[in-house]
Design brief:
Elements (H helix, E strand, L loop, with lengths): L6 H7 L1 H6 L5 H19 L10 E5 L5 H5 L7 E6 L2 H10 L4 E4 L10 E7 L8 H9 L2 E10 L24 H10 L2 E9 L5 H14 L7 H16 L1 H7 L2 E9 L7 E2 L3
Parallel strand pairs: 1-2, 1-4, 2-3, 4-5, 6-8
Antiparallel strand pairs: 5-7, 6-7
Length: 266
């Protein structure tokens, strides 16, 4: 059993989130790239017609970048929820046209939406299946972005309340799909994507080069090693996929007993 974690305090005080809340910071620019070139396109392709959405709730919206970038039909409604008051305050100031709330979605008013989004959230909560089931009950479809960190670079990472990012566990691809099943949902469509194979990676490297003068972090020897490892992993796709983490993007809904899953090409 994991001991209780005060995630509102964690996200209020976490150095990465503090930096992300600063206008013009490297961390804020990096999140914008991740949303625009990785998260948003992979979430939208889960739905046959994502532009038909009229209302969306994002649970764990942090500073609001993903929700703000999501296209809706004219007059559509966006609601973002997060347990960090500091994140919500920045999100509301940066995107005043969107409704943001601070708190637990399970204690709010009874509402339903066309879609509910959980992006990088389920790895933080003690009962991931229950959390996913409760969130899915608020929408016709739930869109999930789940990090799959069952890879070589995370092999010695100690997951739990003291993890640097607050991740309580790691998932494999099979674990992610099993989580959806345990929540009583059926997969509508799903895709596994490695961020280092997408345009987001090149854009992040260029941003680091512009801000710091080099594309990889660390002192010169470490940068040289990282550059060499990354080049090898990129040239040999199986090696890169074994080494680096990936993400599972899933659209799911309440189960009907009918096989409807679509697996999208990575």
């Amino acid at each position: 059993m994991h001991s209780p974690v005060d995630f509102s305090a964690l996200y209020d005080d976490h150095p990465e989130y503090i930096a992300r809340r600063q206008g013009g910071s490297f961390e804020q620019a990096q999140i914008d790239i991740e949303v625009r070139l990785f998260k948003l396109p992979n979430l939208l392709r889960l739905l046959p017609d994502a532009t038909a959405l009229r209302s969306v709730l994002e649970i764990g919206c942090a500073t609001g970048e993903l929700l703000a970038a999501l296209p809706l039909r004219a007059g559509g409604r966006k609601v973002g929820m997060d347990i960090s008051a500091a994140n919500v305050a920045v999100a509301q100031a940066r995107f005043p046209e969107i409704e943001f709330r601070c708190g637990d979605f399970r204690t709010g008013p009874a509402e339903t939406f066309d879609a509910v989004i959980l992006s990088d959230v389920l790895e933080h909560v003690p009962d991931d299946a229950e959390f996913l089931r409760d969130a899915a009950a608020l929408g016709r479809v739930v869109l999930v972005n789940l990090p799959l960190e069952d890879n070589w670079l995370n092999r010695n990472r100690r997951y739990g309340p003291d993890d640097v990012s607050g991740h309580l566990r790691k998932y494999s691809h099979a674990d992610g799909l099993a989580l959806v099943a345990r929540a009583g949902l059926e997969v509508v469509s799903q895709a596994r994507v490695w961020v280092h194979e997408t345009p987001a990676e090149a854009a992040r490297r260029e941003l680091r080069r512009e801000r710091f003068g080099h594309a990889f972090a660390g002192a010169w020897p470490a940068r040289t090693l990282r550059r060499a490892v990354f080049a090898a992993a990129t040239a040999l796709k199986p090696a890169g996929r074994w080494m680096f983490a990936s993400n599972l993007f899933v659209a799911a809904r309440a189960g009907s007993g009918k096989p409807v899953a679509r697996r999208l090409a990575p």
